Amino acid sequence: MTDKDKMERKKSFLEKYVKIIVVLAVVAGSSSGIFGAAISAPSMAIGFWRLTLGMPFFAVPVLLHQREQLKAIEKKDLLWTFAAGAFLFGHFFSWFTAVKLTNIASGVVLAALHPLVVLVVTVFVFHRHVGRRPVMGIVLALLGGVLVAGLDKSQLSSGNFKGDVLAFMAAMFMGFYFVIGNEVRRRVAGPPYVFLCFLSCWICFCIGMVVTKTPALGYSAHDYVLLVGLTLVCQIGAHAVFNLCFGYVDSLYVSAWESGESVFAIILSLIFLHQIPTSWEVLGAAVVVIGLLYYNYCTGLEEKARTEIRGNK
Questions:
Q1: DSSP assignment of 243-294
Q2: Per-domain residue ranges for the chain?
Q3: Which of 120, 122, 138, 130 is closest to 256 using CA atoms?
Q4: Are 268 and 238 in contact (CB under 8 A)?
Q5: Closest by alpha carbon to 191, among 86, 309, 75, 69?
Q6: What keywords would UniProt list here (predicted)?
Q7: Residues 90, 169: contact at Cβ < 8 Å?
Q8: Confidence (pTM)
Q9: Are 147 and 88 in contact (CB under 8 A)?
């Protein structure tokens, strides 16, 4: 089997099982809270090492085997790719800083709003049709996220205002990062896009380390071990996979499922931290799952209808 045949086989596998792969990537990404809570290093250092450790996995294969594809990327797409990396930097830094300044309930609710950003941009900027029933599924999933947070008004309002603003900004950054990735991946192959996007994010963290005078070394061995785990599971297993999937599935689908991260976070917290979920969290998780399954079912019906229309032409 030639290298070209292997690439085609890999692409067809990703295209065939892309929706399942997105869900698995969300499960991987949901562990970031556990890693973040256990790492004592500051937010800027966490992001810096997360990108520094992950970059070789993307840089080496692309620079060795796909340099021609890199050269072929148009200037417009290159600029948008670097913009996506900058938004990813904004998301990482805002989120890791937010959870240090506000309570988790406020942070989870606000940071889960990115599907609304993707929805607004998809409809009003790119003028693409989104059915009423898929939107209902997204809204139901977001309401479930509110239930997961507990619906405790005093708890939600007790968060530090600055932290709440940063959590909301994390959602905005995530939304734009997803939208840009979805558009650029229509024209740019997955590996080169992932490499350039993460390169942009890494450069932003390097500048941030210098500006904030955050030390890169001097943390505990425990922190560095956890940073390696964070890189492998969340950076490679989640964000890299999201970007590769954008070539085969819409950003709204990825964003909708990513909003269900809180459900998997509850399960992982129960397994690794032995944190027993509250009744509100169990109820909210059930609502999130129902909303996401309904969204997935409705989008599947719309895709089937579009396929039948194209087949009849």
A1: HHHTTTS-HHHHHHHHTTHHHHHHHHIIIII-PPPPHHHHHHHHHHHHHHHH
A2: 17-312
A3: 138
A4: no
A5: 69
A6: Membrane, Transmembrane, Transmembrane helix
A7: yes
A8: 0.79
A9: no
Check if the beta carbon of residue 150 is closer than 8 Å to that of residue 105: yes
CA angle 217, 220, 224 (to 5 degrees): 75
Q: Angle CA(218)–CA(85)–CA(198) in degrees, nearest 5?
A: 60
Which residue is listed with tokens 């997360």?
Answer: 50
Distances (CA, A) of 184 to 195, 248, 249, 258, 312: 13, 12, 13, 20, 30
Q: Residue 105 corresponds to which tokens in the numbers above?
A: 């309930």
Both tokens of residue 68?
Answer: 């021609």
Closest C-alpha among 7, 3, 6, 1 to residue 244: 7
The token duo for 207 is 């500048």
Phi, psi of 55 (to 5 degrees): -55, -45
Separation of alpha carbons 165 and 98, rounded Å: 8
- Please name the residues in contact with 243: beta carbons below 8 A apart, sequence gap of 6 or more: 181, 185, 190, 193, 194, 197
Per-residue pLDDT of the chain (313 residues; tens, 9 = 90+): 444 445 445 556 778 888 889 989 988 887 877 787 788 899 899 999 999 999 999 999 999 989 999 999 999 999 999 999 999 999 999 988 887 776 655 566 677 778 878 888 877 777 777 778 888 888 888 787 777 665 545 555 555 667 778 888 888 899 899 889 888 988 999 899 999 999 999 999 999 999 999 999 999 999 999 999 999 999 999 989 998 888 788 887 888 787 777 677 777 767 776 767 777 777 877 887 788 778 777 777 676 666 666 566 5
